[in-house]
Amino acid sequence: MSLLRFLPAALLPALVACQTAAPQPVAAVPEAAADLRAEYQALVQSGTVYAVDAAASKVRIYVFRAGAAARLGHNHVLTVPRFEGYVAVPSDQAADARFELRVPLSELVVDDSSARRETGGSFSGERSADDIAGTRRNMLGERGLQADQFPVMRLRSVAIEGDWPVLVAQVELTLHGVTRTQAVMLHVERDAARLKVDGAFTLRQSDFGVTPFSALGGLMKVQDAVAISFNLTAAPAGLPISP
Q1: CB-facing half-sphere around the CA of 81: CA atoms within 13 A
Q2: Which residues contact 178 (CB under 8 A, 6 or more apart)?
Q3: Are 169 and 230 spatial neighbours (Cβ–Cβ below 8 Å)?
Q4: Cα distance between residue 66 and residue 226, in whole Å
Q5: Which domains does the chain have, with CATH numbers?
Q6: Rounded to an integer, what distance in angstroms lies between the CA atom of residue 77 and that of residue 110?
Q7: Which of 169, 75, 83, 54 is nearest to 122 (CA)?
Q8: How far is the C-alpha of 131 from the C-alpha of 150, rounded, in Å?
Q9: Could you give phi then psi for residue 120, rounded to 5 degrees?
Q10: Within the chain, where are the H helices?
């Protein structure tokens, strides 16, 4: 019999998610203030602008269990079926390129069964609909990312180094009302009809004002590090992407 049945009911919804730290004096990012599409469409005359096709892309966010009783919890795979993103390439110089992606947190899918099977290992087990709903509620709610107040995760390039096809982008990441800049390695394939970008990076929840959940004196907790991998496909803005 699972030890989870003997835990206080008030603890159960939070075993797979995070808590927020004390409120920090940071301003919410005005996510809706700028029209991202119009901003990048205005760059078409000075080069090629690619629109990311979320349906043809794959984004995976991995959240890890920890603690001596970690086996009673779960690792999580979050998928992102809908988001908006653009890449502007005004010249053959990689340093001239720029990009931005915006991910509505309400679109995150928690522990999709096919994504868990594809990841394999300790991520592969099936989870019940009730468990998934509880995880999602706590990840996005007041104990976690506070998605009602901070509804969008934004990634924006501020500088690009390297040379095609291997680039290093300094990316400004905004989450939970906090903005941090970090380096992300990218592999980019491009031609006149298509652009493909592969990469991965990690972030720490505590850097964005979120305290990883810990219970039972630390026997059950969530790791601070979160891993994100992505395979993005884009086509020149306004053109369909072929299979």
Answers
A1: 7
A2: 24, 26, 207, 208, 209
A3: no
A4: 12
A5: 14-20+48-236 (2.40.128.110)
A6: 6
A7: 75
A8: 24
A9: 75, -170
A10: 36-41, 113-119, 129-140
What is the pTM for the complete model shown?
0.82
Which residues are paired to 164 by β-bridges? none
Distance CA(132)–CA(5), nearest Å, equals 17
How far apart are alpha carbons 18 and 11 in whole angstroms?
A: 12
DSSP 8-state class, residue 122? G
Separation CA 98–CA 196 (nearest Å): 14
Convert the pLDDT of each residue in 172-229 to its tens digit: 999 999 999 999 999 999 988 999 999 999 999 999 999 877 667 777 788 999 999 9
The one-letter amino acid at 18: C
Q: Is the separation of the CB atoms in 20 and 209 below 8 Å?
A: yes
Distance, first Cα to last Cα, the chain: 48
For 78-122, how does the pLDDT look when each residue is reduced to its tens digit (9 = 90+)?
A: 999 999 999 999 999 999 999 999 999 999 999 999 999 999 999
Q: What residues contact residue 9 under an 8 Å CB cut-off, 6+ apart?
A: none
